[in-house]
Amino acid sequence: MIMTVKSITGRRLLSSSTIMSQPRHLVNTIQLTNDELASLVNKAAGFKKIVRSGVPDPVNHQKLLGKLVALLFSKRSTRTRISSEGAAAFFGAQPMFLGKDDIQLGVNESMYDTTRVISSMTSCIFARVNKHQEILDLCKDSSVPIINSLCDKYHPLQAIADILSIKEAFGKTEGLKLAWIGDSNNVINDLAVASLRSGINVSVSIPQGVEFDAEVGAAAKEIAKAGNLLFEVVHEPAQALKNADIIVTDTWISMGEESQKVEKLKQFAGYQITSEMISKGQANEGWKFMHCLPRHQEEVSDDVFYSDRSIVFEEAENRLYAAMAVIDGFVINKGDLLK
Fold first, then answer.
1. How many Cβ atoms are within 10 Å of 333's Cβ, its own excluded?
2. Which of 94, 109, 203, 220 qualifies as a cystine partner to 104, CB 3.0-4.6 A?
3. ω before 294 within 30° of 0 (cis)?
4. pLDDT-based confidence at 111, cuts 50/70/90?
5. Which one of 124, 139, 151, 292 is the catalytic residue?
6. Rounded (10°) angle between helices 34-53 and 156-170
7. Which SS3 state, helix, strand or coil, does residue 158 take?
8. What distance lies between CA 135 and its chain's CA centroid?
9. Is residue 151 within 8 Å of 135, Cβ to Cβ?
């Protein structure tokens, strides 16, 4: 094939135009500013009031009417699927679930080809995938916003919902302390950063031999320093619990890690959150417990999980409003999160 100067120039112009018009994506909370995160949380609270009022909202329902919102899921889900579809419907869009067995992704069509096709027909893509690199690949080639709905490194939608839950429970975020007792995973990666961006001190307790993500840790330290806040990673739950207001854990055995269960249970011996542990750790009197679900008995005892200190179900509901806030900010307002 003979390449003419005109065709080469045309391709270059197309490439330049594509780069210039690339949308803003939600990859993690590190990429947000403190004000942008606060704006998303406030938007979520506002949408929650609208939904809870039970009054029809035709203005918001018209904003994406006739549009498609793709849900590209490599992993099964409960809260993420319901909240994403519900948020799309709230704005009048048609959610389209694309599971790993529904499309050609990774079978006989490249990620690039699939991304170009899906993004050409939709207003945004909620992507719940395995590897973080898959999110980056989607962002590189998509012409619409990619919303990271979970990868092995980050979970920003959960972090937004969690900050909303904390703000509702305490009436504020500034000056509180969050204690994480569990594994080093995608949930705490975004939650630590989002908490620090919200003025919350963070103490992470993980077992010996478990490493906190170095990139996330560096970002967290920088944000903590700028806000004169505590960020620490320790190996004793009692140290993290000292003067804690919010106590959080998550599953020790993530989806796809079931073969590691026996080894993980040994490694996390003594990490089950109980009333006795919290009392001995000297958490603050008005402490609250959070868990993003699904929950397993070994992670937290019933007397904590189902107690009146637990806000796990409010936290789960808030995933819906977090998804609404993200669609409003990244799709409707085209990445201007302060609008």
1. 15
2. 109
3. yes
4. confident
5. 292
6. 70
7. helix
8. 13
9. yes
